């Protein structure tokens, strides 16, 4: 990557230290381009990070190559995590992809480990923890700069930037400056929890889920068990329901017994006893949330001094496992655009480079948003998972092995 940059560096702010913001930060750091990364959370340990992610060769893995972190990631990646079983509510298997020996090259990594890898690759002082962006507005000079208003434990302050990158997730505060479109409810509500020390405490569940992911779908509902690297199994209980159902149904989701009783006696009462174990043995820390998404053709007209990436640009549900992968690929492409516009020998204006980046990102994300929406529809059909498995097998047959990583990365 080029390191010859102009003598007056751009002032760049990245809002959000999720996978997208962190990959961008790492790549700018490697290119000697200064930036400030603002994260609302007070520290790297302040929030539980969620389950496991499979990184794809053509996106997430490619970004790790560019970031010089591929070999480190390989040490923590679990190729056995690729195993996948798809069943119905009786536990009848419709698909079993096990012992793949890493054939699909989509190894799993726990989200906390991926985040740690990225955080450790950055100088500590580049990340401003506990800096929540309260608002952003065009600066008074109207020259494409923006004023970022930050809230910290010490009070509020304002900084002005040439480029503000909204890597601030689903409810981005940067996105409204580019578009009036808001995320809408995806029709799916989800409860997630985990079963710790599963091998010793619940060997039957451990065997059911295996080393990868077990998905059971029927009657517009799903139970998913996902092996994590820390000896636990993350479980997702998903239901196709109206937007306010989680609030309206009258169950206190922070009450473990009330939640389990409701799910076992109402929603999943005719599911197999084996599958119901994913609910019965869940630990008490249950998080309930509706899934939101942006329209699958979401786009905007580019504006100088601003851009968005990751969930801020293409929020989708997790049903194709693409969100993190796209966020990382976006960050890689955006870093190239910024480097190009910052290099003396190149005659590229920042705004032109950003427009080009957004064009590429939107083509890629529209395809994945469509795929994700199609998977959601197939998973939540009353006779699921029959049609999902058919479509998946047809797709695998048509696409063949995953694409190769272009040469030239470390
Ligand atoms: C249950 C579930 C399972 C999923 N499973 C997968 C999977 O298997 N594979 C996959 O690829 N994707 C998966 N996803 C999607 C994935 O989590 C997201 O696509 C991904 O995290 C997006 O990364 P990001 O960097 O764009 O945003 P985020 O990860 O949301 O990060 C945004 C960051 O910005 C910070 N922030 C927000 N607002 C502000 C502010 N105003 N000021 C400062 N900081 C702010 C937040 O605190 C956060 O740290 C899943 C999502 C869910 C909900």
Describe the model.
The protein has about 400 residues and is an alpha/beta fold. It folds into two domains: about 10-80 and about 105-180 and about 295-380, FAD/NAD(P)-binding domain, CATH 3.50.50.60; about 185-295, D-Amino Acid Oxidase, Chain A, domain 2, CATH 3.30.9. The chain is about 35% helix and about 20% strand. Strands 5-4-13-14-15-12-16 form a seven-stranded mixed beta sheet, covered by helices on one side. Strand 4 (about 85) and strand 5 (about 95) form a beta hairpin. The radius of gyration is 22 Å and the shape is globular. It starts with 11 loop residues before the first strand and ends in an 11-residue tail after the last helix. Mean pLDDT is about 95; it is low at about 405-410. Bound molecules: flavin-adenine dinucleotide (FAD). Keywords: FAD, Flavoprotein, Monooxygenase, Oxidoreductase.
Helix content: 25-40%
Instruction: Report the bound ligands by name, code or SMILES.
Output: flavin-adenine dinucleotide
Oligomer: single chain
**Run of helices and strands:** EHEEHHEEEHEEEEEEHHEEEHHHEEHHHH
| General shape | globular
Determine the structural class based on helices, strands and strand pairing: alpha/beta
Distance between the termini: 12 Å
Question: What's the architecture of the largest domain, going by CATH?
Answer: 3-Layer(bba) Sandwich
How many structural domains?
2
Low-confidence stretches: 405-410
What is the mean predicted local confidence, pLDDT? 93
Biggest sheet features: 7 strands, mixed
Provide the CATH top-level class of the largest domain.
Alpha Beta
Total beta-strand segments? 17
Strand content: 15-25%
Number of helices: 13
Order of strands in the sheet with the most strands?
A: 5-4-13-14-15-12-16
CATH topology of the largest domain: FAD/NAD(P)-binding domain
Organism: Alectoria fallacina
GO molecular function, one term: monooxygenase activity
Domain FAD-binding: 12-353
Keywords: FAD, Flavoprotein, Monooxygenase, Oxidoreductase
């Amino acid at each position: 990557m080029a390191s010859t940059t102009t003598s007056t560096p751009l002032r760049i702010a990245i809002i959000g230290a999720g996978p997208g913001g962190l990959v961008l930060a790492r790549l700018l750091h490697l290119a000697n381009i200064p930036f400030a990364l603002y994260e609302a959370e007070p520290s790297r340990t302040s929030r539980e990070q969620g389950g496991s992610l499979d990184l794809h060769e053509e996106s997430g893995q490619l970004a790790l190559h560019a970031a010089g972190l591929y070999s480190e990631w390989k040490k923590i990646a679990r190729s056995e995590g690729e195993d996948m079983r798809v069943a119905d509510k009786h536990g009848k298997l419709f698909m079993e992809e096990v012992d793949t020996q890493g054939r699909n090259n989509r190894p799993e990594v726990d989200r906390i480990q991926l985040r740690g890898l990225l955080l450790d690759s950055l100088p500590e002082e580049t990340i401003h923890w506990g800096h929540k962006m309260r608002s952003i507005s065009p600066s008074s000079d109207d020259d494409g700069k923006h004023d970022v208003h930050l809230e910290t434990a010490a009070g509020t302050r304002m900084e002005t930037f040439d480029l503000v990158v909204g890597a601030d997730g689903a409810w981005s505060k940067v996105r409204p400056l580019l578009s009036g479109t808001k995320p809408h409810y995806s029709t799916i509500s989800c409860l997630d929890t985990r079963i710790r020390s599963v091998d010793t405490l619940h060997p039957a569940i451990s065997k059911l889920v295996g080393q990868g992911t077990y998905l059971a779908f029927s009657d517009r509902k799903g139970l998913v068990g996902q092996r994590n690297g820390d000896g636990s199994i993350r479980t997702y209980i998903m239901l196709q329901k109206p937007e306010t159902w989680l609030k309206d149904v009258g169950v206190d989701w922070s009450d473990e017994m009330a939640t389990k009783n409701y799910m076992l006696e109402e929603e999943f009462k005719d599911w197999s006893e084996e599958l119901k174990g994913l609910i019965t043995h869940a630990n008490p820390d249950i998080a309930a949330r509706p899934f939101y998404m942006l329209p699958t053709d979401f786009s905007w007209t580019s504006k100088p001094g601003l851009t968005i990436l990751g969930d801020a640009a293409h929020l989708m549900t997790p049903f194709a496992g693409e969100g993190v992968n796209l966020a990382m690929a976006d960050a890689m492409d955006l870093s190239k655009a910024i480097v190009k516009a910052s290099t003396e020998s190149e005659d590229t204006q920042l705004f032109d480079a950003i427009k080009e980046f957004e064009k590429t990102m939107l083509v890629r994300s529209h395809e994945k948003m469509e795929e994700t929406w199609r998977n959601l529809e197939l998973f939540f059909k009353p006779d699921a998972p029959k049609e999902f498995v058919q479509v998946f097998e047809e797709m695998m047959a048509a696409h063949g092995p995953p694409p190769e990583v272009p040469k030239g990365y470390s």
